[in-house]
Amino acid sequence: MNPKSSLNARSIDVARLAGVxxxxxxxxxxxxAYVSGETRAKILKAAxxxxxxxxxxxxxxxTRRSRMVGVVVADLSNPFYARVLEATCLKLQEAGxxxxxxxxxxxxxxxxxxxxxxxxxxxGVLIAASTLSSTLASQCARAGxxxxxxxxxxxxxxxNAVTCDNVxxxxxxxxxxxxxxxxxxxxxxxLEDTSSSRDRERGxxxxxxxxxxxxxxxxxxxxxxxxxxxxxxxxxxxxxxxxALFCANDTMAIAAIDIAxxxxxxxxxxxxxxxxxxxxxxxxxxxxxxxSVDQDVDRMTDAAVGLLQNGDKGGKPRHILVPARxxxxxxxxxxxxxxxxxx
Amino acid sequence: MNPKSSLNARSIDVARLAGVxxxxxxxxxxxxAYVSGETRAKILKAAxxxxxxxxxxxxxxxTRRSRMVGVVVADLSNPFYARVLEATCLKLQEAGxxxxxxxxxxxxxxxxxxxxxxxxxxxGVLIAASTLSSTLASQCARAGxxxxxxxxxxxxxxxNAVTCDNVxxxxxxxxxxxxxxxxxxxxxxxLEDTSSSRDRERGxxxxxxxxxxxxxxxxxxxxxxxxxxxxxxxxxxxxxxxxALFCANDTMAIAAIDIAxxxxxxxxxxxxxxxxxxxxxxxxxxxxxxxSVDQDVDRMTDAAVGLLQNGDKGGKPRHILVPARxxxxxxxxxxxxxxxxxx
DNA sequence: CTGAAAGCGCTTACAG
DNA sequence: CTGAAAGCGCTTACAG
Lengths: 343, 343
What we know:
Two copies of one chain form a homodimer.
Chain A: H1 3-6, H2 11-18, H3 22-28, H4 37-50, H5 56-63, E1 68-73, H6 79-94, E2 98-103, H7 110-119, E3 124-128, H8 134-142, E4 147-150, E5 159-164, H9 166-179, E6 185-189, H10 195-210, E7 217-220, H11 225-236, E8 244-247, H12 250-264, E9 273-275, E10 292-295, H13 297-312, E11 319-322, E12 324-327, H14 335-342
Helix pairs in contact in A: 2-3, 2-4, 3-4, 6-13, 9-10, 11-12
Chain A binds a DNA duplex through residues 10-12, 20-27, 30, 33-36, 39, 54-55, 57-64.
């Protein structure tokens, strides 16, 4: 009936029960602190008995390390970012860090939201699918909180970044489509102000140029299914339509296949090859069997958590590039089919 | 060069600059505390100048309210849960609460993971796509932390739950399929140990019984694309195959459509009607045009956050049922088509 | 309305 | 190896 008894035990309770000081209790719960095996055992026994575990908030206040990491996510409806978030959280947890999440609708909101994260004394900030202003970046830097962008980068001091090799992945796709014998190759861009879409376009068009192939057409689909549908309608409504379409992400590529099949009666890939980027789960569904560029989420998130801990130790900001891998599937004509066409 | 100058300002710094006490500074940042307009203005000005904002960790220690909420998510690869997580976080943030996230692979891990959450003194715990043991539930109850399950429930004292009306939604689907003139109706279950799958099956089979229709076949697909593929192969490989299939979620329904079309050469819905549950984004893609039961994520997450705050004030645990809505699309034959068939 | 003082639960030099 | 004491940054009765 004593309210105290129903609340969490504190270190002093454990100390009394074990007949030691609070310092000893603290040491028993601190990795590598000096405690004799005997005292530790006594303390651990008392702690179990009382259901004690150290208050992470109080510990954070005195150590000045909260062991919490801010994780900012902008678009969870995109399965790629859902995967990134899941992998990130799992890895932070394994490293003994707790993800304090921040969901934001638009990048612009970050300037007002991240300070709230900082108020919780997070040890660092991980930002996926979004970027941050220079004001915000310097604010974090002043507070000594490393910032790591995932899948975006920005030319600011003190901001780390991990991205897939978007230029390389897009170049590989250009090779694949040209080898497939395609003559009218189009590109569907994502959000225009993102480094990911720009890099994919640059890599793709650049490599086409090296192969003496001019880009046939270009539209923008803002990385969404709905906008991609409209863009693809324009693309396929032309007198002369493309015979291949590379989309800056898989969601848009899926929209392209749907529109091609159901609104234009085209066969994929016989009439139109379609490829995407991200290699989300739906890309492997039998209904699409979508050729895509695989981003290694595991390596990307490993790198991001690594940079965060590195930055925490005062390391210099870095930009890590994770290799991309072309995943060929049935939505694009392959070399042989292309050769047959030409014959 | 003074390290202090590069770190965050504290309330004492603001107090000195404004020529007041720390108490006054604290009050200026506390809703509804007694401060004169004049002093508050002085303090706010000094605070802005120093870039001060109260340390939420220290505040939480003394107020015994961290204003953080544990959010547990088990399966982000399921877009439905990604949506739930996003909506939940947005709503917590609006309520001035910060989501401390915990990603777990299997429900069983909760017993070891939630205590870590509790160590951070979260004010409550929201659990999506998973459930918890009675030991864990009573642990949270003892610590005075309300627990709210989303999309699952469990018969334990002190555990709140918010679910869609799974029984009602499944009953509506039974009506729809029977009205469509289907004679051999099958059900594809999700994870067998979840209340969601069990309730959907119970509602569906129960309503079929009331309509004097026996369930033609039943398989289990564990809520995943891959397992659903295998289950559907068994279902469609029979001498006499079903003419309608209700799947306990959309991902499995999409697998069913893919297998029916690409491995059995069937047309949907002419040869086989397929329906799902959740109404994820992919259900509205032209390639599937999937009839589904819509779960109102907005209402569900509103209710969950509401229960959490209610529980925090000592309200009794409750189970809230959010109405389900049948979303008819092209993957199921409708009344007229069914009538025509029969004619 | 305002300030001095106590205290939230912990860790960490500092002596011993 | 162990304990007494100070202090992390804040809020909140308590006087005034």
